[in-house]
Input
Amino acid sequence: MPDLAGSLKEELFGGDGHAYTILDGAAIPDLPGKLWELEPKFECLYRGELAPDMAAVAPYLVGLEREAAFTKWLLKNAPGANWGIFAKSEADLHKVRQHFRRFLMVHDERGRPLVFRFYDPRVLRVYLATCTPAELAEFMGPVQTILSESEDGTWERFSGKT
Output
């Protein structure tokens, strides 16, 4: 079996830029509790004060530091679990949050709003595979690289550069 944690750590912390993850609270038991316990820099992608049941299933953008307790916990537990996606960006946490908030709701062909769970790697890899170069560049925005777990136990790497 490939060393998912090792290859992910190398991708996230090699080179320039900040390392981030967007985690799916619906996939991780008590994610808000773990965030408060291990104290990484994080922001919920949903706006405002959330009811506890909504906070428990919300997506969270988390800044990762190479040797931080949260990063170690994540690298130990996330590979193989489809907990979220990872990204590298020169932008700060606030700017990356602002960018990705734009994609939380999309509209179908009739104009009806739909929740877009792009932070689920099973959803993201299907979506990005269908994007035109312009659509991919728009989705990536200030993010240079997105890493998404693949079905075969490796990391798929997406870049907005054409």
Remarks:
- The first strand starts at residue 18 and ends at 24.
- The first helix runs from residue 4 to 13.
